[in-house]
Design brief:
heterodimer; A: mainly alpha; MetI-like fold; two-stranded antiparallel sheet; 16 helices; 2 strands; about 0% strand; globular; B: mainly alpha; 2 domains; cell membrane (chain A); transport (chain A)
Chain lengths: ~325, ~270
């Protein structure tokens, strides 16, 4: 691909027709451009099935709807209930706690594994092929597999639970234990993905920087602190934001692993949205919770666009 | 330059290896033993005897059909995503139309939408379109929420195509459509693979859209089938683990045959 893009014969062609001369540096534009027709299907499709629902969430949060028939206008009733509900505030707190805990646990591990597996040594290559294995399983499969592993009667939790203070091994039946389990499962599932991001970024750090530091007598720790970490700054931001926004919407893991239990101990906002909507058929109230999630998620994601390479894409016409 | 081995990192990497492998080993080990052996033995004991009975149980309870449904959803999602995203990416990079610029902005914002939070209006829309309880109902929102990333990754790779190439083709008398077919499509083959794999995995592993948009047995997809097994098989953990592993088998085959592409597809989010 690189070879073809550098086709030298195109040079004279470009010089041939500088007629308009407004911007002499730019080539004259005689190429026919694709019209709106090329983007219309995607734009329409996205508008109907993604943008529409996002607006719809906000609209439905002011409606009353049981899933059948037509939604009816309900004023601010849902929002009053939302703001006045103790369960919602508890779930919000728990969502933020879970988000924070998942970030704190996952970031150092993914960073370490990513940087380590970026090395070209043979053993590292082999091990990282194994490290990425959890990526092959769906959230549903992982949650069900771990549920069996955490089973207090027949699973591994019976033997391993006592080591971390759960003598009966019933982590999933304990208020804090259940949250701990979710953090554990989420870490096991998502660390490989974030490690992958760090691995790619770490491989892009020029080796010459490390060589120079080595000549100056920098040790391994110094090189990590003053070269690797600053060079990975953008990746840390991207990965963290993906992690944070992702944790706001964990749903399958909680539904399958704890089903919100024990006794509401793992009720987080997306889980409540599902149960309000599709178990209690209070679609309006569910939409209110969803609106809160969209606002929270979108404002956090906009930080990705701002701090990561996404926003820069506009200006990298030449490619790097 | 000789390097001193990093013992600390080596040690920790072995710890993480155990963390990754132990659960996988337990799942594999349980899936190949009889239920009675699993109940009699401790969780960590090596299987007393290997059996294929669990596989038979899982397949005879309809898991094969679930996999077929999932495969249908996956194929149609990938095809529809690429059919929409490829021309869109071409227009975003090359077109001067305001719709292209505006759409690009919307797609950028679209990356930020958490799909899970829109299930209620999506449910409303699908019931109004009278598509409830069809596989099409799963494909449509899956494609819609995968579009922003697909378009951005494809546009990113098209930006690297030299302008001279477009002009050379134009001199030969090619219109936009011919340029699209003869230049754009061949040049972004690599990112098409990335987008295809990423979209495919999303559809393969999808849970929430099938959960709220379908209900009948015949349309059950693999992820919901697994969940159903949990209640159906009760404490028959070996059968459940067999289903869990079976659901990942096609992805594992892909991983072994085309690891580079799969990893590129998985990293699609962070890659560009």
């Amino acid at each position: 691909m690189t070879l073809t893009t550098k086709a030298p014969s195109a040079g004279p062609v470009r010089r041939g027709g500088g007629v308009r001369g407004v911007r002499p540096a730019a080539a004259p534009d005689r190429t026919p451009r694709p019209g709106s027709l090329y983007i219309l299907p995607a734009a329409l499709f996205f508008a109907v099935f993604a943008v529409g629902p996002v607006i719809g969430v906000g609209v439905l949060s002011f409606m009353e709807w049981n899933g059948l028939g037509d939604p009816r206008f309900a004023g601010t009733a849902n929002w009053e209930r939302f703001l006045g509900s103790g369960a919602i505030w508890d779930a919000t707190g728990r969502t933020l706690l879970l988000t924070g805990a998942c970030w704190v646990v996952q970031t150092p591990i993914s960073l370490a594994i990513g940087v380590w597996s970026a090395g070209r040594q043979r053993n590292r290559a082999v091990l990282s092929a194994v490290y990425f294995l959890p990526l092959l399983l769906s959230s549903a499969a992982i949650a069900l597999g771990w549920k069996a592993i955490l089973d207090p009667n027949f699973g591994a939790a019976k033997a391993l639970g006592p080591l971390i203070g759960y003598s009966d091994g019933d982590l999933l039946g304990d208020t804090q234990g259940a949250l701990l389990c979710i953090v554990m499962v989420v870490t096991w599932q998502f660390v490989p993905f974030h490690a992958l991001l760090y691995q790619a970024a770490a491989r892009n750090i020029p080796a010459s920087i490390y060589d120079a530091a080595l000549i100056d007598g920098a040790g391994r720790a110094t090189a990590f602190r003053y070269i690797t970490l600053p060079q990975l700054r953008n990746t840390i931001i991207t990965s963290s934001t993906l992690m944070i926004v992702g944790s706001l919407t964990y749903f399958e893991t909680i539904l399958l692993l704890t089903d919100g239990g024990p006794g509401g101990a793992t009720h987080v906002l997306p889980f409540l949205m599902y149960t309000e909507g599709f178990r209690s058929y209070e679609m309006g109230f569910a939409a209110t919770i969803a609106t809160a999630l969209v606002v929270l998620g979108t404002s956090l994601s906009l930080l990705i666009v701002r701090f990561s390479g996404f926003a820069k894409m506009r200006s990298t016409l030449e490619g790097i | 330059m000789t390097r001193r081995p990093n013992w600390v990192a080596g040690g920790l990497s072995c710890v993480w290896l155990a963390v990754v492998l132990l659960p996988l080993w337990l799942m594999v080990s349980w899936s190949v033993q009889l239920r009675q052996d699993y109940l009699d033995q401790g969780p960590f004991d090596f299987p007393r005897a290997f059996t294929a009975k669990n596989l038979g149980d899982v397949l005879s309870s309809g898991f094969g059909d679930y996999l077929v449904n999932t495969a249908i959803v996956t194929v149609f999602s990938v095809v529809l995503t690429l059919a929409l995203a490829l021309p869109a990416a071409y227009a975003i990079v090359r077109s001067r139309a305001w719709l292209a610029t505006a759409s690009f902005r919307v797609f950028l914002l679209g990356l930020a939408i958490p799909a899970q939070a829109t299930i209620i209006p999506v449910y409303w829309l699908i019931t109004r379109l009278e598509l409830y309880d069809t596989l099409t109902a799963i494909v449509l929102p899956t494609v819609a929420f995968g579009l922003p990333l697909a378009v951005l990754v494809l546009a990113g790779s098209l930006r690297d195509v030299s302008r001279d190439l477009y002009e050379a083709m134009t001199l030969d008398g090619a219109g936009p459509f011919l340029v699209f077919v003869k230049l754009v499509l061949p040049l972004c083959r690599a990112s098409v693979t990335t987008v295809g794999i990423y979209t495919g995995l999303n559809a393969w592993n999808g849970f929430l859209f099938p959960l709220i948009l379908t209900q009948s047995d015949e349309l059950r997809v693999m992820t919901l089938g697994l969940w159903n097994f949990q209640s159906e098989f009760g404490v028959n953990t070996p059968a459940l683990m067999t289903g869990v592993l079976l659901s990942a088998l096609p992805v594992l085959v892909l991983y072994i045959l085309a690891r580079r592409w799969l990893v590129a597809g998985l990293a699609g989010v962070g890659g560009k």
